[in-house]
Specification:
Blueprint lengths: L4 H6 L4 E3 L12 E3 L5 E8 L7 E7 L5 H13 L4 H11 L3 H14 L4
Antiparallel strand pairs: 1-2, 3-4
Length: 113
């Protein structure tokens, strides 16, 4: 994993270095928040075990032009507000069952007016 210190210092992505608290003393562990976004640089199969793959990641920040373009494109494609917008997003990414559940819950909460 590659982390550019200049991106971390300006990033709004909180993280914690927990290597001193790890059960494995030589492991370098970093915890990131759930909304952290990484760019995949390379994916390779490990030579010692063909069932394992290793990913090389680079953290992005809020000034990443590709991420900004993608975010704006998704916002333009998915209209609405709140949970309705979430349902639209679920449909867009192919999570039809979850979208149906969400819309059914929204219908239950809707008034008869």
């Amino acid at each position: 994993m590659t982390i550019d210190p200049s991106k971390i210092s300006t990033s709004i992505t909180p993280f914690a270095m927990v290597d001193k608290h790890s059960a494995l003393p030589r492991e370098q562990e970093i915890l990131f928040t759930m909304h952290s976004v990484f760019r995949i640089v390379e994916i390779t199969q490990t030579p010692s075990n063909s069932r394992l793959w290793e990913e090389q990641l680079t953290i992005t920040d809020e000034s990443d032009p590709q991420l900004s373009t993608l975010t704006n494109h998704i916002k333009e494609e998915i209209s609405g507000r709140g949970w309705y917008r979430m349902g639209q997003f679920m449909l867009k990414v192919g999570h039809f069952d979850q979208a149906e559940e969400l819309y059914n819950e929204l219908l239950k909460g809707a008034s008869d007016d």
